[in-house]
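Same chain as my last thread, 242 residues:
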Amino acid sequence: MKVIVFGATGNTGRRALKQGIQMGYEMTAFVRNAEKFYEQQDERSVKQVKVVVDDILNPLSVGEALSHQDAAIIAAGHAGQGDEFVRLVDNIISQCEIHPSFSGRVWVMGGAGLLNIPNTDLIGNNLPGFPPAFQNHNRNFERLLQSELDWSIMCPGTMVDSKEAAASVHPHVTMETLPLAVPKTIKELSEADLAGYLFSRLQELDVAYEDVVKCMLDHLELGGPFKKKRVGIAYHSHSSVN
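reply #2:
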């Protein structure tokens, strides 16, 4: 399988490259800074990864890079970049849609605030107190809803370098809904109180980059269970109440 990673020098992208190589995929890195890429990667990765150095906002460059790729992981940019972040995601999605030799499987990075809050009809990004920049994830999600691509949007909480995971702890993956067990009475809270409740539990959503990346790389098939879904991931102990 041929996989291209946009934003391949970022925290998520460089881990996607490393794990993809270990899984036997043919990996392509789309980067803005070649020097940074070569500083990050070991000798094996440098030899096994095809590197494209160009402007991610250039439609022609992105289109050429997508040739004969089976899947794309969009790990470039961040919500704090505002309109530029939305434009770069839109550019890549648009090129994926029109490219004749791209299979159509796409993962896009979002955030936990995009997920439905259990027992409510709300998402975190729309609650008072959530950073306004997170609305840019909403805009990217709305763009995906208009697309016929086989897309998924990964919605983790805070990603960390590593997780000391004992045997009793394992990644718990959800579709559309925040991976937190919450009481049914949560629906009685005001939006402000609901936001406060979620903020008090944010640490429960911390997840290792490696587990986020593994989830995406394990689900690159067309027509899989995560097609056109928001995907949440967090750690649940075996003793947790689901």
